[in-house]
Every structure is written in structure tokens, then in C-alpha cells.
Amino acid sequence: MNELIITSDGSHTIFVPEIDEHYHSVHGAVQESTFIFIKNGFNFCEADPLSILEIGFGTGLNALLTAVKSMAGTREVNYTSIEKYPIDNKMISSLNHHEFAGENGKEIFHLIHSSPWNTDVKICKNFNLKKIETDFTKEQLSGRYDLIYFDAFGPDKQPEMWTREMFSGISSVSNKNGILITYSAKGEVKRILKACGFDVTLIPGPPGKRQMIRAVKI
To answer: CA 65, CA 63: separation in Å to the nearest integer?
Structure first.
């Protein structure tokens, strides 16, 4: 049975015993997501309007932080997120992520999780969400994206998510100069991304992790 865990910055993550893995870093869930996906993804990507594809909706933390960031800016953000195993409502109601997302955090967190799956929903100013409940490894991706949040469980836990076939699919829907950001820094992931048409750079990782990958579609 999945367990709620308090990480070092006080924010929650979820531990999945069957694969011995956490949804986020135990060094700080909000800290990690902000560093990887907002600072080194959202802030780094200049596309306007901005179309984001997230692989691994999880607890909705990345969507929450992106929505709050979008509200503070002017560019329209269209956010599509894929998740095979949505978290149950009881676990969602226990998460404290909204406490780290400013004065509108609780309302936005609720709207993100209460919005229906497989439907386009305007969550707040400048932020539109479509959550897709599907198996990424069997999904034919569509649309065009400027920024990819690749947030699946690690290659050692979910190897089927990190194959050349999967990244080739992502490459096919990535705009030129589109950015893929992920916490992984594995050599095999770098090689696959390069083979799929990305220029790959290792950049400093969040606390507890030395490096991570940022890749730009050539």
C-alpha cells in the first residue's frame, strides 16, 4: 500500500513499496520539482504561447507549480499530462503541496485534481490543462510541444518508459528548439535522446542529485 512521506522541505511525496520508489526526492519534493521543471524547464523555454507535455502526472505537483508560475506571467500555457495510474482521491486530499504554492495554491490544486480526465479545462489565468489517463508506452502522441516534462519513475524502475521508441515518439511531437527536461542523467538516456534528434546537455541537479539532463530538439 502506498505511503505518504514528509520530505526534507516539509512537502509530501508518496512511497510505492512494490517498486521501492518515491514519487519525488526525499530531499524535498517541492524543492526538486521547482528546480528541475520550473527553473530549468519553464523559465528556460521562451516559447509564447507555451505548449507543455508532461509524462507522469503523478501527484499533480508539476502542474500546480506551472499553473502558479503561469498566473504570475503573461504567456498562455497549454499543459497536457499523461498518467496511467491516477492517484486516489483520499491520497490527493492528504497531500500538502498547495501549502507551498502561494495564496491561490489550494484553489488551483483542487481545480487541477477535480478537473475531468481526457478533457480540456481552463484552470486559471493563462493555464489550460488536459489530463490524459492512458498508458504512455501504448499511446500514439499527437499535438506539437515546446517543452517536455519527462517525470516517469527511473529507468531502473520503469525501463519500458525510457526506450528509444518512447523518445522517438516524443521527438516527433516536439517543435524545433523544443526542450525536454528530466531528472535522469544516465548515459543510456543521453545516447537515446541524441539518436532521436536532441542536443543533450548535463546540467547541475537539485539537492541530492549531482546532474540531470536538458535536451533541445535540433
So the answer is: 6
61-71 vs 105-114: helix crossing angle, rounded to 10: 130
Q: Is residue 17 part of a domain?
A: no
SS3 56: coil
Give the integer Cα–Cα distance in Å for 4 and 88: 12
- Provide the residue range defining the domain that includes 67: 28-217
User: What digits encode the pLDDT tens for the residues 64-115?
Assistant: 999 999 999 999 999 999 999 999 999 999 999 999 999 999 999 999 999 9
Residue 15 lies in a domain: no
* pTM for this entry: 0.97
The count of structural domains within the chain is: 1
Whether residue 3 contacts residue 15, with contact meaning beta carbons closer than 8 Å, is answered with yes
Domain holding 153: CATH number?
A: 3.40.50.150
Quick one: DSSP state of residue 41? I
- If you search the block for the grid coordinates 512537502, which residue do you land on? 11
**How crowded is the C-beta side of 187, counted as CA atoms within 13 Å?**
0
Strand order in the sheet with 50-55: 120-124, 127-133, 77-83, 50-55, 145-150, 174-182, 211-217, 198-204
Coil, strand or helix at 152: coil
pLDDT digits (tens, 9 = 90+) for 185-204: 999 999 999 999 999 999 99
